[in-house]
Amino acid sequence: MTLSKAQRSAEGAHVGDYVGERRESRMVFIHEGPFWMGSWNGSQAEAPEHLVELADFWLDQTPVTNRAYSDFIEDSGYRTEAELAGSAWGVHDGRYQSIAELSWRTYSTPGREEHPVVLVTWNDAAAYCEWAEARLPTEAEWEKAARGGMTSMKYPWGNEDPDGTQSNFAAVASEFPGTSRARNYPPNGLDLYDMVGNVWQWCSDWYAESYYTDSPSSNPTGPVIGKTRVRRGGSWNVIQPFRLRCANRGAMLPSQTATNMGFRCARS
Known about the structure:
Elements: E1 13-19, E2 24-30, E3 33-37, E4 50-54, E5 57-60, H1 66-76, H2 81-85, E6 87-92, E7 95-100, H3 104-107, H4 122-131, H5 139-146, E8 200-206, E9 229-232, E10 250-252, E11 261-262, E12 266-267
Parallel strand pairs: 8-11
Antiparallel strand pairs: 1-2, 2-5, 3-4, 5-12, 6-7, 8-9, 9-10
């Protein structure tokens, strides 16, 4: 398997409507093929930059919205982990703290139907994906999709640092999270929206800082076990541009929620 870094990482992609028994969604079909994953110019967890071969897959064009998550809850009767716990971490009186009765529903209000759902744990996201006849993307799938058909570029749009026109970031924390509606910013080269900024996105993989040193070169799915799950993409309240880079890696406990944490679905 060989690929020049000057080549595009994908032969192409197309957008289609996926109609399942429970949801209809816009998904992007991403063709099989290799791409360069990771970076020599980031944190130790991003190295080494290495060639990865992936099979065909579909990915939601946008993060899952409040409207879509509401459909899931109404149809399944599912209760999120924050609802079961009776509280979640959010902003009140100008500071982050545990707030009673805070959940995804708090921010799913009129006018915010097309904003990404937040305050969902990895388990809450996986439950939605199962209901939707889908799954969470692997970390490798996410990064290939984020790169938008380009290789060795910092961001989905190229190497230019973000200036507020390409993605939603550096917003001031407030009692309502500073998310933006889906498709509010330009898509990347694969017609995917909000791959970086707006909300962090859960991936299916367990996280290990040194995983790239011996990860498989074909369809990697992460370590067999771990304590935290991979999150990717940065969010509306990150202030460091480096967190919006395609190669940037993060992790959270799968039982944690955040007002800047969401997800999107994939299908094989």
